[in-house]
Amino acid sequence: MSFDFSKLLSVAWGGWTTTWPTQLLALIWLAWLASWIGASFWQGRTQKQVMTLESGRYRIPILVGGILFTPWTAEVLNEKPLWVFSNTAVYITALIVLAGISFTWWGRLHLGKFWSNTITHKEDHRVVDTGPYGIVRHPIYTGLIAGMLATGIAVGTVTAILGAILISLGMWQKGRMEEVFLSKELGEDAYGAYCRRVPMIIPFLSPR
């Protein structure tokens, strides 16, 4: 007797799109996370990085935000969403999240061996100001922030929205720390000039 995978897919797809909206969005985020972890083995040799204690300035809000963002927090608090998205709104949110994730991957691939999950100075490091890095200085953070905020709004719970905001603030803080670090490592003339030319997180804004 053969197993009907189409029936299983139909049930799963219906569940993702007619119940809690993050069931659809969670699949997208899990696929991104798995691919991101797999790609983390492809990076250049690190020469110098920000110390662990210093990195707590961005790691802590991201960690706390991540805990608040999970569905288990809302379940423990018996929290109900402030609103419920329609299927159409969920699809639109999913497209926004996919666009954000695609932007992170464009940035990741364009950065190549200079990418790192932490704030580091890689071997032969140089300023990359082409591709997505000609649009914003931190395209990976831009994509993640857009996707996280869209997901938090779609979930609609106070904890999910607050978690998304904390994660976004943590990424912004990491970006600021990274810029101070790279300005010292790569030189104010090189990286500082780049910062004065390209917006940090939000495209088309005046660079700051």
From TrEMBL:
Organism of derivation: Bradyrhizobium frederickii
Task: Choose one Gene Ontology CC annotation of this protein and give it.
Answer: membrane
Which residue spans traverse the membrane? 20-42, 82-106, 140-167
Keywords on record: Membrane, Methyltransferase, Transferase, Transmembrane, Transmembrane helix
Predominantly, its location class is membrane
Identify its membrane topology class. Multi-pass membrane protein
One Pfam family assigned to this protein is ICMT
Record has Transmembrane helix as a keyword: yes
InterPro entries, A to Z: ICMT_MeTrfase (IPR007269)
What molecular function terms (GO) are annotated for this protein? protein C-terminal S-isoprenylcysteine carboxyl O-methyltransferase activity
Lineage, top-rank taxon, reads: Bacteria
- What is the annotated localization of this protein? Membrane
Q: Which residues form a coiled coil?
A: none
GO BP terms, alphabetized: methylation
Name assigned to this protein: Isoprenylcysteine carboxylmethyltransferase family protein
